Amino acid sequence: MANIEHINVLRAPIAKVYEALTTEEGLTAVWTSELKVKPEVGFINEFSFGAETDRFEIKALVPNQRVLWYCIDSDPQWIGTSVSFDLEEKNGKTFVTLKQTDWAEVTEFYRHCNYNWAFFLYSLQCYCENGKGINYQQR
């Protein structure tokens, strides 16, 4: 099994970062404007990228600490993977650790996603620090 792991440090309050990762407003700004999300454990978040839609069941929401999704519908390489965001505040900054775990193997698509998760964190940083992310539709 392979995992994708990234960390980024944001000059933003932890509550702002958590809100960006769990609300329609935040995820629209950061990831895609075509979505259905609800900050509720068990809800199936849907993120669309043109003809593709990714569906994640929300497995855990710990305010200002953790968000955990489990992929139930997407590219076959994503199904069964988990995406987590762990948050920690230190000295007025928020450390965000993003992981996508349980990849079957390292493939070309894995490498593509690895890059795009890093860009997701950059978009999150732009949104939380400056009020404007760079979602899929803007790229």
From TrEMBL:
Q: Which InterPro entries match?
A: ASHA1/2-like_C, START-like_dom_sf
Name the CDD domains on file: SRPBCC_CalC_Aha1-like (cd07814)
Note one Pfam family from the annotation: AHSA1
Q: Which ranges carry the Activator of Hsp90 ATPase homologue 1/2-like C-terminal domain?
A: 11-125
Please list every transmembrane segment annotated in the UniProt record, as residue ranges: none
Q: Which family does it belong to?
A: Belongs to the AHA1 family.
- Name of the featured protein: Uncharacterized conserved protein YndB, AHSA1/START domain
Organism source for this protein?
Pedobacter steynii
